[in-house]
Amino acid sequence: MSDEPQQTYSAREIVLEFFPATHEQLIPKTSAFMLKNHDGTIIISTTKGKELINLTPVQPSGNASTQLCCDFCQHSGNRHFLQLFRAEVAGSNGRHFFYISLCKHTEACETRRISDKPIEALLERLGID
Is 70 exposed, middle or buried (0-12, 13-18, 19+ CB in 10 A)? Predict the structure, then answer.
């Protein structure tokens, strides 16, 4: 074993080095947001730790085998893996909500998500800077 520090590479660097013709949309990007699941509530925060949104789960009803698609990572599956969440629109005093379907397992969603655009669109629709 060498005393020299081992150099590590990001997923982005590996893709660009070994697969230079990869479409831009498939190249991993550094994310400005993090997802955390806290007792069923999903918290979206900046990578610096500032909490932006709390998405509360909506009680499921109807057929449990209904297929949903995650609005952040585009993964599809039944309600065992995905759930409907809601966030209050800024300035509505609890009268207006925005609904979104997301993965229950936030770490898996983070690894599949290739862009911050869906989160940025959600923040814009909710009136959050």
Answer: buried
pLDDT value at 1 more than 70 = no
CB 88 within 8 A of CB 58: no
Of 43, 46, 18, nearest to 30 (Cα)? 46
The pLDDT tens digits of the residues spanning 50-96 come to: 999 999 999 988 888 889 999 999 999 988 899 999 998 888 888 88
| pTM across the whole model | 0.75
Q: Please choose, from the candidates 127, 124, 75, 128, the residue with its C-alpha nearest in 3D space to the C-alpha of residue 104.
A: 75
d(CA 86, CA 19): 39
Q: Where are the beta strands (DSSP E) in the chain?
A: 33-38, 41-46, 51-57, 68-69, 76-77, 82-88, 97-103
Mean pLDDT value of segment 93-113: 89
Structure tokens at 61: 């009803």
